[in-house]
Structures are given as C-alpha cells and as structure tokens.
Design a protein that fits this description.
Number of helices: 5
Helix content: 55-70%
Distance between the termini: 62 Å
Order of helices and strands: HHHHEEEH
Strand order of the largest sheet: 1-2-3
Structural class: alpha+beta
Shape: globular
Number of strands: 3
Radius of gyration: 20 Å
C-alpha cells in the first residue's frame, strides 16, 4: 500500500515567477467567466430563466455556446446591421482569448529565459500531425502580454453583453 505523506509539511515551489502564475490562473478563471456571460446572453435573447439555460448549456463547449448565442442574436438582428457587426467583432476577440487560454493550458511551462523567478515564462508545445510530422514550438510570454490579454477578454465580454442587452431591452 502506498501511504501519502503529510502534505502540510510540503511546500509548492516553482521556477516561474509568482506574478506570471497569478496572471496564468486569472486567464483560466476569466475563460469560465466568459462562458458564464455567454449563458446569460443566451438567457436574455431566448427569454428563458437562467436556471433553464444552465440546464440546457451546462455541458456545452465554448464553441457551442458561441454558436447558440450567435444564432440567437441573428434571430433579432440582420447580419449586416451595425449592432451585429459589433457583436461579431467582440466575439472574434473572445475567440482570440479562448485560443490563448487553450495555448496556455495545453503547454509545458518553463521559467523565463532570463532566469528562475524572473518575469515571464517560456512554453513548449509538441504536436504530431499526419501531414506535418513532429513539431516542437517554443514561445516566450511576458507578464505584460498576459495582463493585457486578460484585460481584453474582460473588456470584450462586457462589450458583447452590451450588444445583446441593446437587442432585448
């Protein structure tokens, strides 16, 4: 039998700076907020109480939520209307945020090339595709870039919701 140690006596250490880890976690949490806001937008557009929308959408992916909210917006807005164009623009920015979140979540992380505990970090992503073969991508991220992206995700979900609310109120 394997006995677990007393975890309270073990510290968590990382070669990655605490600020980078904080921003990384903030982006993960912001994606959950964005998906929650998309559920609220769906509830508003379809005039359903939020609990029913949660029942219907709890297991949907981000992409499925986007398809549902977009289809619902098109029920009330012409695709060439200024409001829908702004909605689509905000949604494209949220797609960029979701891609960043996926890149962050599905990578191996190393400390900054400047050294252990220094600002920033380096990610490594390995893929193996049928036509392209093995590829290893290494990319550096700054703390400033992560903070900017978090702010953009937060801004564009609010802008998207404003377009939805203008449609229904």
């Amino acid at each position: 039998m394997i006995e677990e140690p007393d975890w309270s006596t073990h510290a968590i250490n990382s070669a990655i700076s605490p600020r980078f880890l904080e921003l990384y976690a903030s982006i993960m949490m912001q994606q959950a907020v964005i998906e929650y806001e998309l559920q609220i937008c769906i509830a508003l557009l379809l005039k359903l109480d939020f609990e029913r929308v949660q029942i219907l959408t709890a297991e949907l992916s981000y992409r499925q939520l986007v398809a549902l909210v977009s289809s619902s917006m098109l029920k009330f807005n012409d695709s060439s209307s200024e409001r829908f164009k702004e909605f689509r623009y905000a949604l494209a920015k949220l797609d960029e945020f979701e891609k960043l979140r996926n890149d962050l979540a599905h990578s191996i992380w190393m400390h900054s090339p400047d050294g252990i505990g220094k600002p920033g970090a380096k990610r490594m992503k390995t893929t193996s595709k049928r036509k392209a073969g093995l590829k290893v991508l290494e990319e550096e991220y700054s703390e400033e870039e992560l903070e900017k992206q978090w702010k953009r995700g937060n801004f564009f979900i609010r802008e998207l919701r404003k377009r939805v609310e203008a449609t229904v109120f």
